[in-house]
Here is the input.
Amino acid sequence: TPAVGLVEFRNVTFGYPGAERPVLDNVSFTAEPGKTTAIVGSTGAGKTSLINLIPRLYDPQQGEVLIDGVPVSSLTRAQVSSVVGLVSQKPYLFSGTIASNLRFGRASATDDDLWEALRVAQGEDFVRNKAKGLDDPISQGGTNVSGGQRQRLCIARALVAKPRVYLFDDSFSALDVSTDARLREALGEVTGDATVIIVAQRVSSITDADQILVVDDGVIVGRGTHEELVERNETYRQIVES
Ligand code: GTP
Ligand code: MG
Here is the structure.
């Protein structure tokens, strides 16, 4: 049966190998298809650690991460990757071309698919301005494009793969406020009934999320909409005001 993309954390506790204390402590939440779940919290709170458990970059010591009710621990990384698209906090480009980077994970994508993903990711203009367009070279690590361009290419790469679950780890922070807003609006139109999880530094990026999780020192200390959290969550208020 095709994946729906319902993500569930059940009492997840996770510590890095060799570390004394866990970075996530008894985390439980559900992220639903067709909805946006945002994760906020101060630096070092555990946001990246949390999101990286979904594609099995690490496995928790206790509890379970499930997709559509199936523990991801029972799936191979390749199986998880076919459902989950992660745009990591340090977006990585390979040596090759813009096109080969965007087709990573879905070799059958047409040029039209790539341009459509670039349109949504707000990367269309800068790629059109490249001498060879989609065939312009990318050096290893993407050092020949700017940080913001790298971020947008990695967002486009995720869109090309059309996963059921999108994970954006602080993917919009290198963008200026208006590009960020345009990107999120376009994203909302194409992600449709997929599950979207966004880690955000800039709270203005996620005030319209269906659900916001506030993470502090590895624990979920608040959950709700922006309005609900502003009213009743001190940690969230501090993040909003900072
Ligand atoms: P920002 O991205 O800065 O906003 O932080 P974050 O909320 O994403 O925190 P993250 O999950 O990266 O880190 C949570 C804790 O885990 C911090 O104390 C980190 O120092 C620690 N940590 C992160 N990555 C590793 C790792 O690869 N190994 C070890 N041992 N600790 C790590
Ligand atoms: Mg992080």
In short: The mean pLDDT is 94.
